[in-house]
């Protein structure tokens, strides 16, 4: 469905949603516990940085082929790049978090284009308009990217710098220690074969999140930037058969209204998909 047609000079504002990203299973669980950032395509040696997030584009380009830039956008967003590039050329540009429609206007110059969005506001396609011309270059559709998430730098720093968390009982026995990092807790909460260990690990993670206002607000802010279906997909990919159990644990153990509402919605999406 074409929800907006973006021609050079048009000013219509379009829905913004980003889902295709790359990161670890740890950060996917952080999202559910209360956490678009996009995975940037960067090649310092070639002067190339392309980052798509929340329907905005950040670039730092030094004589990079325009076709490669469009391919990067397609790869990160999961959108199909359709049509022909009328003027294959190299571009040099630098800007940060510019709405995609405006960013493409800057990069494409006089060539018109249309942005096609799906029902949930996710970018589905970028259509290059104007028809093929001699010397034009077609942009191949991107290969599907794995569903995952990469949190903003402030969330990453909070997680990486967090001191070990005291643990006890069965969890301490499995770890062979009376403390655990957030990463250890989340890995056990997702993948342990022992249901008791999974429950204790998730409980410790939720209690840590809700006991620290700075971490809680950073993670909740990130959580709210993604829709329920996206989070359900992330959790299913990270936790597999334990996905509904994890969502239920967060729902029943959390005291934060924002987290409980989101966990309930994600659980519903997971059940509908079964």
Report the portion of residues in β strands. Answer: 15-25%
Distance between the termini: 26 Å
Provide the number of structural domains.
Answer: 2
Low-pLDDT sequence parts: 6-40, 132-138, 140-152
Average pLDDT: 74
Q: What spatial order of strands do you see in the largest sheet?
A: 1-2-3-5
Helix and strand run: HEEEHEEHEEEHEHEHHHHHH
Question: Which class best fits the helix and strand makeup?
Answer: alpha+beta
Structural shape: elongated
Main sheet overview: 4 strands, antiparallel
- Helix % is 40-55%
Rg over CA atoms: 21 Å
Task: Please count the helical segments.
Answer: 11
Number of strands: 10
In short:
With 274 residues, the protein is α+β, with helices and mostly antiparallel strands. It is built from eleven helices and ten strands.
Topology:
Layout: H1 25-33, E1 41-43, E2 48-53, E3 56-65, H2 66-77, E4 80-85, E5 90-99, H3 100-108, E6 113-117, E7 123-128, E8 137-138, H4 153-160, E9 165-166, H5 169-175, E10 179-180, H6 182-191, H7 195-211, H8 213-223, H9 228-239, H10 243-253, H11 257-273
Parallel strand pairs: 4-7
Antiparallel strand pairs: 1-2, 2-3, 3-5, 4-8, 6-7, 9-10
Helix pairs in contact: 1-6, 1-8, 1-9, 6-7, 7-10, 9-10, 9-11, 10-11
